[in-house]
């Protein structure tokens, strides 16, 4: 494929890892590091010691401390900042983003207060640009070390999704396409809530059985909300749904899971978040998901308990007891469409 110009907004762990992968493929990459000290350090050492230590940046990544220069004349803009910062960074530099540039978002969250998905935020700021969300089970620490990884490029236009697939795909990074932007965005954001729960379970000393239950019942409630919000439930069975849920709930790379472990061990929310030192998207997303469950009248028991733990000083052990003691129910209501009880 033809080599293109990419502006990466955000030199955190994910922005840096993807910048490295794109640069190794031969694309010309501009990378925006917001913090001046970090910018100077990376420029000197060619290593992002704060967010991705131990990995060198190829020479064809140009480092910037100025966001306008990062995005100017670029064919593709990769948005790799925490979800709550997306609106602000795009407002800052939108005048320098050309209309033909494709906006690729990799943030996995939902906007506080507005309850919007990131595609909706981007559309408000850059209505003329094509949008794609790139998501899937992908820890930056592994992608930056060329470990095999899969991603999904979801866009409303097939042409746009296939363009992004071509730009990012490498022998180590396989990219699929999907037209379900809503499902891919919700899967990526909501799995962080369940990962906090999986971490809490680990922190309490519970075992693999509890985690398997959280993951399986977690994807059920994500699918229930996704369905009423217009997603295809099939998407939640894919890489950006269950795939990302598995990696986030089981990996020690996951900031959400690690934060959950600290909560399960008894640490206060603010202290736990601070100790991670990187973005823990699940904290804000839990509040948004809880509000969405009320708005759409969808039963989300795990999300609700995590919301209470984060906001109402709910005792974590009591939360588990209440989840276990909920009123009895069938496992999957829809199965009754396929298999009937013998006695009904
Ligand atoms: N780290 C990973 O493995 C993956 C992360 N993601 C998602 O990518 C997004 C970014 O995550 P990471 O790079 O991991 O985060 P990080 O915490 O490693 O880095 C965040 C970056 O955003 C910048 N930033 C923070 N607040 C900002 C603000 N208010 N305005 C402008 N810039 C700001 C920081 O300076 C830093 O460069 C998140 O939504 C995350 O869920 C998605 C897939 C994998
Ligand atoms: O989304 C991720 C992996 O796919 C990263 O998860 P964390 O933000 O929990 O580290």
Automatic annotation (TrEMBL):
Give the record's pathway. Membrane lipid metabolism; glycerophospholipid metabolism
Q: Which domain of life is it from?
A: Bacteria
Q: Give the catalysed reaction(s), semicolon-separated.
A: sn-glycerol 3-phosphate + NADP(+) = dihydroxyacetone phosphate + NADPH + H(+); sn-glycerol 3-phosphate + NAD(+) = dihydroxyacetone phosphate + NADH + H(+)
Q: Which residues are involved in binding sn-glycerol 3-phosphate?
A: 108, 136, 138, 191, 244, 254-256
Gene name of the record: gpsA
* A single Gene Ontology CC term: cytosol
Question: Which Enzyme Commission number(s) are listed?
Answer: 1.1.1.94
The name under which this protein is listed is Glycerol-3-phosphate dehydrogenase [NAD(P)+]
Q: Which organism is it from?
A: Anaeromicrobium sediminis
């Amino acid at each position: 494929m033809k080599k293109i110009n990419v502006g990466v907004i955000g030199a955190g762990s994910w922005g840096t890892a993807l910048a490295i992968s794109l640069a190794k493929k031969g694309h010309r990459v501009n990378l925006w590091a917001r913090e001046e000290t970090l910018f100077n350090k990376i420029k000197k050492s060619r290593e992002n010691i704060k967010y991705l230590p131990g990995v060198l940046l190829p020479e064809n990544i140009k480092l910037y401390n100025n966001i306008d220069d990062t995005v100017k004349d670029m064919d593709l803009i990769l948005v790799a900042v925490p979800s709550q910062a997306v609106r602000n960074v795009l407002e800052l530099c939108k005048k320098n983003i050309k209309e033909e540039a494709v906006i690729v978002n990799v943030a996995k969250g939902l906007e506080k207060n507005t309850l919007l998905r990131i595609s909706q935020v981007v559309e408000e700021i850059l209505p003329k640009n094509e949008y794609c969300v790139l998501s899937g089970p992908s820890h930056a620490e592994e992608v930056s070390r060329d470990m095999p990884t899969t991603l999904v490029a979801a866009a409303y236009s097939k042409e746009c999704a296939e363009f992004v697939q071509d730009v990012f795909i490498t022998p180590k990074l396989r990219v699929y396409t999907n037209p379900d932007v809503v499902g891919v965005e919700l899967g990526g954001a909501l799995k962080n809530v369940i990962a906090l729960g999986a971490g809490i379970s680990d922190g309490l000393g519970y075992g693999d059985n509890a985690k398997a239950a959280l993951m399986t019942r977690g994807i059920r409630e994500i699918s229930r909300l996704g369905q009423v919000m217009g997603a295809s439930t099939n998407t939640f069975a894919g890489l950006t749904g269950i795939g990302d849920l598995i990696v986030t709930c089981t990996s020690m790379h996951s900031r959400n899971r690690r934060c959950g472990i600290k909560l399960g061990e008894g640490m206060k929310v603010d202290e736990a978040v601070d100790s991670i030192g990187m973005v823990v998207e699940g904290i804000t997303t839990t509040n948004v998901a809880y509000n969405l469950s009320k708005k759409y009248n969808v039963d989300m028991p795990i999300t609700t308990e995590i919301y209470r733990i984060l906001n109402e000083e709910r005792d974590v052990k009591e939360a588990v007891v209440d989840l276990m003691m909920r009123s009895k129910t069938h496992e999957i209501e829809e199965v009754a469409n396929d298999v009937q009880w013998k006695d009904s």
